[in-house]
Design a protein that fits this description.
Rna Polymerase Sigma Factor, Chain: A, mainly alpha, 8 helices, single chain, elongated
């Protein structure tokens, strides 16, 4: 059987709807790092993010089987929108805003697959990612979400604007101010990358 890795998202969706479960597995593998990273950075809890990641794909399967996917060629923004909405639903359900953690929880970057590195490189990378995560946590939620969606999920500003129901200029402005604030924090803390 021909490898599914090289097929476009829309082709994989069609194959899945026609009974090929490997097509869905290919989509999950293709986007798991981006989706999980975004969920984790919104929820700030490794175990909750893992559960939410699974719940998102259960919802995706239900929506695909229900014929609710009409985003031809826009699978990643579609699943990101589902994940974002499910995270918001979670926060509404527990009736609180996300808590900024200051403990040394395991970092999202521990779950990503990096090439083999020396122990020193691993330590330096982990420390750098931890610093960035902590600095991101200090930003206003609107700025933090835009930076996460742009840099970790690699969504376009048009996709972010659609997902957040804001104008592209608003998304760009929040990104700009978020980056300015991160730079200020880096200068104040004398952080170098």
């Amino acid at each position: 059987m021909k490898s599914l890795i090289h097929l476009a998202d829309q082709q994989l969706v069609e194959l899945y709807l026609n009974g090929n479960t490997e097509a869905l597995s290919t989509l999950i593998v293709r986007y798991k790092s981006k989706l999980y990273t975004s969920i984790y950075l919104l929820l700030k809890d490794k175990y909750l993010a893992e559960d939410m990641f699974q719940d998102v794909f259960i919802r995706v399967i239900d929506k695909l089987k229900g014929g609710q996917y009409t985003e031809e060629g826009k699978f990643l923004p579609w699943i990101m929108r589902i994940a974002h909405n499910m995270c918001l639903d979670h926060f509404r359900k527990v009736s609180r805003l996300p808590v900024i953690k200051t403990s040394n929880d395991t970092d999202i970057f521990d779950t990503l697959n990096f090439a083999e590195k020396s122990t020193e490189e691993v330590m330096v990378t982990g420390e750098s990612h931890e610093k960035v995560r902590k600095m991101l946590d200090t930003l206003p939620e609107e700025q933090r979400e835009i930076i996460i969606m742009r840099h970790y999920a690699e969504l376009t500003f048009k996709e972010i604007a659609s997902l957040k129901a804001i104008s592209i200029n608003t998304a760009l402005g929040r990104m700009r101010y978020g980056l300015i604030n991160l730079r200020k924090i880096m200068v104040e803390q004398q952080v170098a990358f």
